[in-house]
Amino acid sequence: MRVKIIGSAAGGGFPQWNCNYRLSRAARAGMSGVHSRTQSCIAASADGAGWVLFNASPDIRQQIAQTPELQPAADAPLRSTPIRAVVLTNADVDHIAGLLSLRERQPFAIYATAQVLATLEANSIFNVLDPAIVPRRLLAPMEDLAIRDADGHETGVVVDAFPVPGKIALYLEQRGDPSADFSSDTGDTIGVRITGTGSRGAVFYIPGCARVDASLRTRVADAACLLFDGTVYTDDEMIIAGVGQKTGARMGHIAMSGEAGSIAGLADVKIGRRIFVHVNNTNPVLDENSAEHAAVKAAGWEVAGDGMEMEF
Ligand code: MLT
Ligand code: MN
């Protein structure tokens, strides 16, 4: 089983188009140790030929352009793709907008929870993917669902989806009610356990998670690899940076640091490799020369970059 991190940044990417914060500036200037990143997506393949994407980011066209494995093979038909299916972990813009770029009457399958399928259904622009060509399938929390292509052939990638503490997508929040509680742990945001034909261990992909609780700790124990929500280093980082009013918690993202953070929360759990993904453009770990980056490494974590690949 091969797993490739296609995009390691959070919504907006790094640098973000309108961001003038020091980190985006450093990335634009090509400062050493500060690498640009595209938005949140990973890909998995059991046979090295067909690939299952996890999320479809607004950067999908660029991501395919820089990933030969996701391009049509030289001997393939005039219209073709090795992308067999897309599994969605929530309905955030950075996870579903890329579907619009995958039109062209090209068959593949979409897997998502009932809530995320309802969002696709409610927004008719997604009908550029005709469900007769691109079937939409329910990803119910259950044991081991074999991911199949549009024709129903197994890809060899197997997914076990589970709800995680999170929240509904930003654009689904009712306007004018800033005090409302938009948190959800019923499938608006999910994590996935990825295994497959011949795999020697499980990879967990959890790009959005508001809390590390006992059930999550138990679930990810013994993972070969955990790809986890690395949006913010400290909860109030976006406020301190002066770029926004929201805390990480308000956005459904646990901070890396602190007593209630993910590093502490997962410290005692046996995990082969732990890697932060979905890194926001305010997160100081994006600078490899920062004290925060050093602290994360010292705690046994890696910070994902685009193109990072693993086999398990
Ligand atoms: C998130 O991860 O919280 C969202 O992607 C934020 C957004 O919609 O920009
Ligand atoms: Mn996001």
TrEMBL record:
The keyword Transport applies. It comes from the Bacteria. Keywords: PQQ biosynthesis, Transport. The keyword Acetylation does not apply. Residues 51-278 form the Metallo-beta-lactamase domain. Pathway: Cofactor biosynthesis; pyrroloquinoline quinone biosynthesis. InterPro entries: Metallo-B-lactamas (IPR001279), PQQ_synth_PqqB (IPR011842), RibonucZ/Hydroxyglut_hydro (IPR036866). Gene3D superfamilies: Ribonuclease Z/Hydroxyacylglutathione hydrolase-like (3.60.15.10). HAMAP family: PQQ_syn_PqqB. May be involved in the transport of PQQ or its precursor to the periplasm. NCBIfam families: PQQ_syn_pqqB. Belongs to the PqqB family. This is Coenzyme PQQ synthesis protein B. It comes from Mesorhizobium shonense. The gene is pqqB.
